[in-house]
Write a structure and sequence with these properties.
Blueprint: H1 2-35, H2 40-73, H3 82-86, H4 89-120, H5 123-130, H6 135-163
Helix pairs in contact: 1-2, 2-4, 4-6, 5-6
Length: 165
């Protein structure tokens, strides 16, 4: 029975991880570039609506990845005592994965999302672009990509840690 529960939680962990990482990458590398086909005002409205719609979902899914990861490493895994967390290679990797996962999620929730919404709701940038002066908006969107790129680095770090387990 223990093995079945472990496999179910592992499957949920993997599914949530794919959804979290894949969803964010799809929005950033798929939807945002495709939205450039829209006129500026339609693009702004669409992206604001999209970000508001997926933000809570990605936050919940990312939290689920972290919770299931902790369960897999502790209750359903080898780290059953706090002492083994600090005195085993698996415990070190688990602690590192937890830290990177939480920091990546917090960055997405409190930095990347807020910065993106600040640019998307900055009316002057969008009006200037609509009136033929898109340079400031392009620079601001490039900044959004850079700020959001920190999440991608977090995901790459998590993958590297997972591969070392």
């Amino acid at each position: 029975m223990f093995w079945i529960v472990h496999q179910i939680v592992l499957s949920v962990h993997i599914l949530l991880g794919i959804t979290w990482v894949g969803g964010i990458l799809f929005v950033g590398w798929g939807v945002f570039p495709a939205a450039e086909k829209l006129d500026y005002i339609s693009r702004q409205r669409f992206l604001i609506s999209l970000m508001q719609g997926v933000h809570h979902l990605f936050t919940l899914v990312g939290s689920g990845v972290i919770v299931t990861g902790v369960l897999l490493g502790t209750v359903l895994g080898p780290v059953r005592q706090l002492d083994s967390m600090f005195h085993s290679a698996y415990g070190h990797n688990l602690l590192m994965a937890f830290t990177v996962g939480v920091l990546t999620l917090l960055w997405g929730v409190f930095v990347s999302y807020r910065f993106s919404m600040k640019v998307l709701t900055h009316q002057t940038l969008w009006r200037m672009a609509e009136n033929g002066y898109p340079r400031l908006l392009k620079n601001a969107m490039r900044s959004v990509a850079i700020v959001s790129g920190v999440e991608v680095l977090g995901f790459l770090g998590l993958v590297a840690i997972m591969l070392s387990f």
